[in-house]
Design brief:
There is one protein chain. This protein is of the alpha+beta class. The protein contains 24 helices and 31 strands. It has four domains: about 5-40; about 55-225, Alpha-Beta Complex (Penicillin-binding protein 2a (Domain 2)); about 320-335 and about 355-360 and about 385-600, DD-peptidase/beta-lactamase superfamily (Beta-lactamase, 3-Layer(aba) Sandwich); about 605-735, no CATH class. Strands 2, 3, 4, 5, 8, 16 and 17 form a seven-stranded mixed beta sheet that branches. The chain has a five-stranded antiparallel beta sheet with strand order 10-9-21-20-19, sandwiched between helices. Strand 16 (about 470-475) and strand 17 form a beta hairpin.
Length: about 750
């Protein structure tokens, strides 16, 4: 082969080799660039994931307190049970551990054995176990000298100490400790805190390393909330609202709100029926539960979800209703502020009116008419005709101006989720002639209960619109104030002088008018009842109504306002004056002393106050009779002895003036019982006669008016029960002519 040819071949070979080396190194360089620069962070994270296990440590959710620092919702320590199989290996105690944990935790032994067979230092057996189970595990580990193999890690679980109390207000959390409704949802961010982390190292084969290689970042607990709610007030509101719901056979639930008129604090808010916050996913209504069970399997889940949504719904802020005659408080405020009406104004009611040519007749609730009346009488009669005249005198433009000023065209911004808006005739406030007529007495538009009580507060507190709110303060873990509620005294809606006149009119209405069933001896209450027909939401074939009552006290300088609403009562009446006002009176009687308002009785009220039975056991019959006479009480003697061995009512019991104390002079006579009769539907005189003939005492509860105008509606002890002679039966009376 020629020498030149050989040299050329060598040169080609070297060139090819250089090119191969260059390409090879180029590929390596590109790959290195990809691994280190392009994919570097991702690969680094993958390596960390292989080498480390990151476990979330849940922060303790903040406590929710009432205004007096009573815990209404709090998180308690529970534990997660963790196995460390790598420590146990094939130890003979492995079987014992799995068997014991299975029994304590209620978990299948096979499931525990499966977890114990893994090559790991961290395998969860069960979460959120209670203290009793945790104590049993600790005792077992100590008894069997098991230092490693089982760990207990602290966790948190939400508890509601009062169960059903303020259920729609507080709301509840889910399994992940996130707020799902109510305050728990609205303030979820503040309550949640910041989770911590437990970082555990893994060895080359992927097994968790011992706890010496752990790194822990502690959780930061959530903030605490102090509500404006008063637990004692809330309890009273719920008790009386529920009694009224049952007694009046209310079909679609009930709402009551108590507000401080001067700063917008909600002191109590209840919606009935309620549910237990510790078991929120359990359907309370038995009929609904049974109905769901009858549905095909593929429909049950949807029906259950809808039932729970209804159960959790807060009608006080989430639903709107037609306010009816309670709105006359605001119509009166508008007319007084515009000087359209005064004490000398006269109104005539013939029972119906054609408000303008071609219109249909608008009726008053009293079809025979109220005749001639002044403003106070028109309020006390709740006369629709008078308010039609006021509305027409105001005109649509001014009516809407005040309607908007009272905050009824937008949400109140209360700190609860899902607040609804009412529905007016149009977005821009334009109204037809008939719209104005019916709006003047509260029909054909809707507001929410929270909007209505806020507007009533403005009409009676001196004329200023307040910001309703549930939370007073937010506190950090150390108890320091993080945030204080902004008690916004908003715009001046009406003058202080107009507000004063409105308060006096409302006081007269409770004293002598349609709100008489809302009166309480010793307290000066001003209020207005309402009965609105449900339009577009009634049961087919019948008319449904909403009965309501709005009130403030003390009437001359209000501290609190209440609203009570019953949706579709089907009992003895559907009128607000008979259904809602008595409940409002009971609530006022309970809560006014709590907020520091004392009873001041008139001379007439003092004469009729209940007496307190003295201690007579051991006294001679002569001395016992003399003691009772001094208290305007009578005595009935049972037995043949000469001294008192027992008495009914007992010492300190409340008994009406002129009531009877039964004095027993031997043990045998004290065993006698009498049957409680049915007091319902009777006048005061008839009920008193029945009580006397049944050897019982009757305490009258309700409006303090002429006995001939009152009828009994509720009794404290059910008909047919056997009680001792002399037992006091409290009978609630309502005025019969309180239609509105």
């Amino acid at each position: 082969m020629a020498k030149g040819t050989t040299i050329r071949m060598w040169r080609r070979s070297i060139l090819v080799l250089i090119m191969l080396v260059a390409v090879g190194f180029g590929i390596i360089v590109v790959r290195l660039l990809q691994l280190q620069i392009i994919d570097g962070k991702m690969l680094q994270q993958m390596a960390l994931d292989q080498q480390l296990k990151d476990t979330l440590i849940t922060a303790q959710r903040g406590t929710i307190y009432d205004r007096n620092m009573k815990p209404l919702a709090q998180s308690a320590t529970v534990w997660t049970v963790v196995l460390e199989p790598a420590y146990m290996g094939n130890s003979p105690k492995k079987e014992l551990v799995c068997s014991e944990l299975s029994q304590i935790l209620g978990v299948s032994k096979d499931e525990v054995l499966e977890k114990a067979s893994k090559k790991s230092y961290y395998t969860i057996v069960k979460r959120k176990i209670e203290s009793d189970a945790k104590d049993k595990i600790v005792e077992f580990l100590s008894k069997n000298q098991l230092g490693n193999g089982v760990r207990l890690i602290e966790d948190q679980k939400r508890y509601y100490p009062y169960g059903c109390l303020a259920s729609r207000v507080l709301g509840f959390t889910g399994t992940d400790d996130q707020g799902l409704s109510g305050i728990e949802n609205y303030y979820n961010k503040e309550l949640t805190g910041e989770s911590g982390r437990l970082i555990t190292a893994r060895n080359a084969v992927g097994t968790n390393m011992p706890f010496e290689y752990e790194q822990k970042v502690d959780a930061k607990n959530g903030n605490n909330l102090v509500l404006s709610i008063d637990e004692a007030i809330q309890r009273s509101v719920e008790k009386h609202l529920e009694e009224g719901r049952i007694n009046n056979k209310v079909l679609n639930g009930a709402v009551a709100i108590v507000m401080d008129v001067n700063n917008g604090e909600i002191l109590g808010m209840s919606v009935k029926n309620d549910f237990n916050l510790n078991t929120p996913f359990e359907i309370v209504d038995e009929e609904t539960k049974k109905l769901i069970e009858t549905l095909p399997q593929n429909q049950r889940s949807k029906a259950r979800g809808e039932a729970l949504e209804k159960q959790w719904r807060n009608k006080a802020v989430n639903d709107a209703y037609m306010p009816g005659s309670t709105f006359k408080i605001l119509t009166t405020s508008m007319a007084l502020e515009e000087n359209i009406v005064d004490d000398k104004s006269k109104f005539h009611c013939s029972g119906g009116i054609v408000p303008f040519a071609g219109a249909r007749t608008v009726h008053c609730h009293k079809r025979t008419g109220h005749g001639s009346q002044n403003l106070t009488e028109a309020i006390c009669h709740s006369c629709n005709m008078a308010f039609v005249g006021l509305g027409q005198s105001l005109g649509a433009e001014k009516f809407y101006k005040y309607y908007k000023a009272f905050g009824l065209t937008k949400k109140t911004r209360i700190d609860l989720p899902g607040e609804a808006e009412g529905l007016f005739f149009s977005k821009n406030g334009s109204m037809g002639a008939m719209d104005l007529v019916v709006a003047s007495f509260g029909q054909n538009f809707t507001v929410t209960p929270i909007q209505m009580i806020t507007a009533v507060a403005a009409a009676t507190n001196g004329g200023k619109l307040v910001q309703p709110h549930i939370v007073k303060q937010i506190l950090n873990e150390e108890g320091n104030v993080v945030k204080t509620a902004y008690e916004n005294m908003g715009r001046q809606v009406i003058s202080t002088n107009t507000s004063k006149k409105v308060r006096e009119l409302l006081r007269m209405n409770v004293a002598t008018g349609s709100g008489k069933n809302g009166s309480v001896p010793g307290f000066r209450i001003g209020g207005k009842t309402g009965t609105s027909e449900k339009i577009g939401d009634s049961t087919p074939g019948r008319k449904d109504y909403i009965a309501s009552f709005c009130a403030v006290s003390p009437a001359e300088s209000p501290r609190v306002a209440i609203i009570v609403i019953y949706d579709n009562p089907r009992g003895i009446s559907y009128y607000g004056g008979i259904v809602a006002a008595p409940v409002g009176a009971k609530i006022m009687n309970d809560i006014l002393p709590i907020v520091g308002i004392d009873k001041i009785y008139t001379e007439e009220e003092m004469k009729n106050l209940d007496r307190t039975t003295p201690f007579l056991v051991g006294s001679s019959l002569e001395n016992a009779k003399a003691s009772l006479i001094q208290k305007d009480l009578k005595a009935i003697i049972k037995g043949d002895g000469t001294s008192v061995v027992s008495q009914i009512p007992d010492i300190g019991a409340k008994i009406p003036k002129g009531g009877t104390v039964v004095l027993y002079t031997d043990d045998q006579s004290a065993k006698r019982k009498v049957k409680v009769p049915n007091f319902k539907g009777l006048s005061v005189a008839s009920a008193n006669k029945l009580a006397f003939s049944s050897e019982l005492n009757m305490s009258v509860l309700g409006a303090t008016q002429s006995e001939s105008e009152m009828i009994s509606s509720v009794q404290s002890i059910r008909e047919g029960e056997m009680v001792s002679p002399g037992t006091v039966i409290t009978v609630e009376f309502v005025l019969k002519d309180t239609a509105d």
